[in-house]
Amino acid sequence: MIRNLAGDIRAFTSNVFLVDGETTALVDTGANFDVVPMVREVTDSLDAVYLTHTHPDHIGNVDAVREAFDVQTWGYDTGNLAVDRRIDDGERVQIGDDVFEAVHTPGHKDDHLCFFSRGSGVCFAGDLVFANGGFGRTDLPEGDRGALVESIDRLREVVGDDLTELHTGHGPSVTTRPKDDIDLAAKAARTR
Fold first, then answer.
1. How confident is the model at residue 192, as a pLDDT?
2. 122: closest CA among 172, 169, 171, 174?
3. Across-strand partners of 23?
4. pLDDT band at residue 174, thresholds of 50, 70 and 90?
5. Cα–Cα separations (whole angstroms), residue 107 to 37, 43, 116, 119, 142
6. In angstroms, rounded to a whole number, what is the distance separating the alpha carbons of residues 22 and 17?
7. Over pLDDT 70: what percentage of the chain?
8. Is the pLDDT of residue 136 over 80?
9. Max CA-CA distance within the chain?
10. Close Cβ partners of 102 (under 8 Å, ≥ 6 residues apart)
11. What is the pLDDT of residues 34-47, one digit of tens each?
């Protein structure tokens, strides 16, 4: 089961997805709210924390989560103190009951990853794309519009026609024709 623990939070934060199953994990930790008791309402332990990227709104709660659950964080850039273990492009990781492929998708930030499970059709897209054709900012340090467009195209290729759910770093998840939202983001990122 996938739960967005930040869904009702009114602070500047990212979405925080708690995925339970064979492996219980968080995808991003959010910031500016106490996520630990929210995790504890569902589970007493975490097996891993996966980071889509290391912008402060996605990693602000990393230290609290590490301390509370004695858990390691996984991400692309181990040069960032929020990342304990590296995930390489194409590496597979267990999140919940499914195996997800890590897809390196720079453009919003150099260390950005998306996670896609071909078996379940679920994608955690971080800040690469959002509902209704939105896409990640490129006006922040490490932002690059050309790289972002290439990353959106790469994600489109990876998910193909297998995508059933798109869980984004901000805003609502997309469970109805999510590929359309990625296609819209690809078009919008080229024209805005």
1. 64
2. 174
3. 96
4. very high
5. 33, 34, 18, 27, 7
6. 16
7. 99
8. yes
9. 46
10. 76, 87, 88, 89, 90, 91, 92, 93, 113, 114, 115
11. 999 999 999 999 99
| CA–CA distances in Å: residue 119 to residues 13, 93, 98, 161, 162 | 29, 13, 7, 12, 8
For all residues of the chain together, what is the average pLDDT? 97
Token pair listed for 46: 């975490």
SS3 62: helix
> How many Cβ atoms sit within 10 Å of the Cβ of residue 78?
15
What is the token pair recorded at 130?
């959002």
What is the span of the domain harbouring residue 44?
Answer: 2-191
The CATH number of the domain holding residue 120 is: 3.60.15.10
Number of domains comprising the chain = 1
**H-assigned helices in 74-174:** 145-159
